[in-house]
Amino acid sequence: MDMFINGAWQAAANGEIVEVIAPATGAVIDTVPRGTAADADAAIMAAAHAMEDWKRRPMAERVAIQKRCAAAMRAAAETVGAALHEELGRPLPACIAEITRSADLLDVYAEEGLRLSATISLGSAPGEKTVVTREPVGVVVAITPFNYPVTLLMFKLGAALIAGCTVVAKPAEDTPRSTLMLAEIFFRAGLPAGVFNVVTGKGREIGMAMVEHPVPRKIAFTGGTAAGKAIAAAATGTMKRVTLELGGQSAAIVCADADLDKATTAITRHGFANSGQFCYRVNRVFVERPVYEAFLALMVAKAGQLTLQPAGGEGDLGPLVNEKIFANSAAQSDDARERGARILLGGARQRGAGFEGGFYFPPTLIADATQEMLIMREETFGPVLGIAPVESAAEALALANQSRYGLAGFVFCRDLAKGLTLCEGLEAGSVWLNDIHRSSHYVPFGGMKESGLGREKGRYGVESYLEYKTMYLSYEVPS
């Protein structure tokens, strides 16, 4: 596939390509252009030209177009989902669900656009009015990761388009095809040429060229903390706005009075979804000692039922996307083992027929984990869970907050007052009590500390693509 710029397919200026690899087999399934600064400039200038018209479209018209794009996504869900399944390795039903749920977010953003308004102060003197309005921030660069490439793009694209911005997207090298397909689908659904452009290539080669380009006014990035810091530093050169959703090392606290069946079901489902490849998954668990062994037994039973999907077969979990991501799970498991932890489940690469060509790591439970272990300090981004006993909920809260990350937190406790107190005490952007759901499309999502800056979703997401403008109006009052 080629890049999609100004409503047309386009190869890289230098003609170079990058191979797209199927993580289940290691086979090359496609190629995309290895874009350069020249390609980034072409896409950005197309977006800047298109924005002159797009920002002036009435909100009702932008809403109607965005809703057509959402409908087109749903109609193409199986086709785009199949491409995503091939390039990511996640089981096909989950890939199709990602497309349809992302379309729902486009609709939510469209509805939020209809609720935007300007205000006029009532404190003005006769013959004066002060109007506070909001305008689109400008051309947006959206840089997205491999794990939920469509969902995390829609976090940014849906909000930007409704605000009146145009977008240049740079998908991850591992999963570019689903994003490229959507660019053409949206164009055919009525999104004007240049409003949504997609460039591909190596992150540091084309990504930083976009970040440092003088025209874009905002960078929206989801990815690792180190990369996010580099983007934030580069963006200061032209004072670009940034929204950064970065790493997580999210902790769950399980109190002695918790419903263990419900807690272990939720933690198993959330900790191992997408083979652990998402930012706000449960990464570490602190369990009050009276129920520690019972908790472990239930986790082993439930996580042990999850199956890996071999190449061409069926299963609950797919492979990890590449060798780098795989190596992190292996290294954290080995580190815990060497430091005296109990590996209750998994802990080593899956071998056998259907698994040899891909990066398969089974659900892994590490018991008796300590703060010195990597699993309790660093983001895993894989199907590995660290579990530690604590003497009290207060100790669990202190350990949970001993992290440079602050994306999500989870509490299981029947005592509502105690549970709410723990939720309030967790230093995290989103906290769940007594269950774990998908993050809602209607409320803000983002992190504290080194987990990022800004919020996405709902009206909060749309507002992050708008600038306030104050207009002071004077006129003669008729006598």
Task: Describe it.
With 479 residues, the chain is an alpha/beta fold. The protein contains 14 helices and 22 strands. The protein has helices spanning 37-54, 59-75, 77-88, 92-114, 149-163, 177-188, 203-212, 225-235, 260-272, 292-303, 323-338, 393-401, 416-425, 458-463, and strands at residues 3-5, 8-10, 17-21, 28-33, 119-120, 128-136, 140-143, 167-170, 196-198, 218-222, 241-245, 250-254, 282-288, 342-345, 364-367, 384-390, 405-406, 408-412, 430-433, 448-449, 452-453, 466-474.
Secondary structure elements and pairings:
Layout: E1 3-5, E2 8-10, E3 17-21, E4 28-33, H1 37-54, H2 59-75, H3 77-88, H4 92-114, E5 119-120, E6 128-136, E7 140-143, H5 149-163, E8 167-170, H6 177-188, E9 196-198, H7 203-212, E10 218-222, H8 225-235, E11 241-245, E12 250-254, H9 260-272, E13 282-288, H10 292-303, H11 323-338, E14 342-345, E15 364-367, E16 384-390, H12 393-401, E17 405-406, E18 408-412, H13 416-425, E19 430-433, E20 448-449, E21 452-453, H14 458-463, E22 466-474
Parallel strand pairs: 7-8, 7-10, 8-9, 10-11, 12-13, 12-18, 13-16, 15-16, 18-19
Antiparallel strand pairs: 1-2, 3-4, 5-6, 6-22, 11-21, 14-15, 17-20
Helix pairs in contact: 1-7, 2-4, 2-5, 2-6, 3-4, 3-6, 4-5, 9-10
